[in-house]
Amino acid sequence: MTADEIKRAMHEFKPVKYKGILYKRITACIYRAVPVPMTNNFRGVLQVELLDRCGNSVTIADADKVEVVD
Fold first, then answer.
1. Dihedrals φ, ψ of 38, to 5°?
2. How far is the C-alpha of 56 from the C-alpha of 69, rounded, in Å?
3. Which residues lie closer than 8 Å to 51 by C-beta, 6 or more apart?
4. Phi and psi, residue 26, nearest 5°
5. Regions of the chain where pLDDT drops below 70
6. pLDDT, tens only, 32-48
7. What is the distance between the alpha carbons of residues 38 and 26, in angstroms, rounded to a whole number?
8. What is the rounded distance in angstroms from the CA atom of residue 70 to the CA atom of residue 68?
């Protein structure tokens, strides 16, 4: 998912799927600075926080592996 798709899904409370599991919705969008091995550089990683169907826990997932369920 792109940042715009994530924002739209968050605002519309759309259910999403990650690794074959259905989640209630996206609760957060996370931008992380991850070090690149053997260099002094960092790269940006986009992740999302997914609320489980019971509303009891969250899962952090790579944004490009999450899809909106219509």
1. 65, 20
2. 20
3. 23, 24, 25, 26, 27, 57, 58
4. -90, 130
5. none
6. 999 999 999 999 999 99
7. 33
8. 6
